Amino acid sequence: MTAHFIEPDWPAPQNVLALSTTRVGGSSRGIYTGLNLGDHVGDLAESVEANRRLLLQYLPDGCPVQWLNQVHGVNIVRADPVGRVVDADGSYTRQPGVACAVLTADCLPILICNQSGDCVAAVHAGWRGLSQGVLEHCVASMNCPVESLMAWLGPAIGPAAFEVGGDVRTAFLDTAAPTIKAATGACFTPAEGVPGHYMANLPELARVRLRYLGLRSIYGGQNCTFSDSERFYSYRRDGQTGRMVSLIMIKSCQKPLETP
């Protein structure tokens, strides 16, 4: 059994391992067909367990994964080497051999590391968390010079598919700093034929926030989960469905990521 991963195209240090899974491979069947890694979506527990064991085969031996109970909030936690599940929408670590991970199926996964490779983080950025400041909380938790940070935006619903109500646009504009209100507003295009609705560019909304925080090295954001049913799960497209994982860790050894 194999799996297919996306490796971020970014200049991360060699000791940083980062990946984003697709739905290709795995043990799940039916509406979850593929590598479903979400244990809260109604899939068979044994299928999810098998899929998570498959994921671990591509990580250094004994590497714990910090799974989260994601609540669309702004809480960021230090990754727990014991692997206890906690309510949060992101984690960070300076400890080698511990993986920070987030589950998504349209929301935006964001992986962050510093240039020296001794601090990494993974963030679940749905529109609620993003508008409420989950990225701001993550950068503050990492406590690194902002100019040393780089971010990679993983697969998420694209701007041609993410129709939202005016309340979502208002939520972002109300929380945007004055200097980024115009850039924030530009991420919303009126939806044709649906008064009061907008097409939202979730990756660009994240870029606007990250640039405001001082990050200049921002990569990814091109993969649309909604439009590619062969590779990605999408909650907006399918309703009940599986989840992909995006994870990042500091390697305690130089074992390379070996993907089929």
Describe the protein:
- The protein has 260 residues and is α/β, with parallel strands linked by helices.
- The protein has one domain (3-158, 217-250): 4-Layer Sandwich (CNF1/YfiH-like putative cysteine hydrolases), CATH 3.60.140.10.
- The chain has helices at residues 45-56, 127-132, 134-142, 166-175, 181-185, 202-213, 235-238, and strands spanning 3-6, 16-25, 65-66, 68-69, 77-78, 86-87, 90-93, 99-104, 108-114, 120-125, 149-153, 163-165, 188-190, 197-200, 217-220, 244-250.
- The strands form 4 sheets. A 6-stranded mixed beta sheet has the order 5-7-10-9-11-15. A 5-stranded mixed beta sheet has the order 1-2-16-8-3, with no helix packed on it. Strands 12-14-13 form a 3-stranded antiparallel beta sheet.
- The N and C termini lie close together (10 Å).
Residue-averaged pLDDT: 95
> Per CATH, what is the topology?
CNF1/YfiH-like putative cysteine hydrolases
Task: Tell me the domain tally.
Answer: 1
- Main-sheet strand order equals 5-7-10-9-11-15
Report the major sheet.
6 strands, mixed
CATH class term? Alpha Beta
The CATH architecture classification is 4-Layer Sandwich
